[in-house]
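quick one
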Amino acid sequence: MKLRPATADDGDFLADMLVAAVNWSPAWQPKSRRRVLAAPNTAHYIAGWPRDTDLGVVAEADGERAGAAWLRFFPPGDPGYGFVAADVPELTIGVAAAWRGRGIGRALLHAVEARAKEAGIARISLSVERENFAQRLYLAAGYEVVGAGSEQSDTMVKVLPSRTFT
Ligand SMILES: CC(C)(COP(=O)(O)OP(=O)(O)OC[C@H]1O[C@@H](n2cnc3c(N)ncnc32)[C@H](O)[C@@H]1OP(=O)(O)O)[C@@H](O)C(=O)NCCC(=O)NCCS
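structure w/ coenzyme A:
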């Protein structure tokens, strides 16, 4: 498995991973790609990729894209589900179904945090449904619940260690 920075060419794949993240529960009727990319509250996680301040990582395995994690800043007037502040980017993460449960999600999370630290980002936020096992992944990685996004979901934040110059 290889991790690399996400590029402009990865837009369609990131959109696939956004659709996977929206449709995380096998118990629900999945939303179509078209619907996810047309609804403003989900489309804004990927619309116009890459923006100047977007930052992402792609995992490749067996020569194919297996997953992606990326950060995007939102303004207060157009907040994501996990919005806490304009200077705190929100995480989106997804691993293609065939590649789940093999450590790729955890590796993507660590890699995108490392890139964020390099970029001088102090905090990362996200929104997760409490029933999604992904919440345990985030807790183990140091994210803390800072509020409830809805009856079913939590907003979580990780404070990144500040850069040290030697
Ligand atoms: C959530 C997701 C990104 C995690 O990536 P992954 O590659 O499957 O996860 P990893 O293999 O790195 O495992 C991370 C942790 O989750 C646990 N885990 C993985 N699959 C699991 C499952 N089906 N049920 C319960 N726990 C699971 C792992 O055991 C691991 O924890 P542990 O090592 O302490 O046991 C991926 O499963 C996914 O894309 N899911 C659908 C989209 C989604 O939910 N996105 C997040 C929305 S907030």
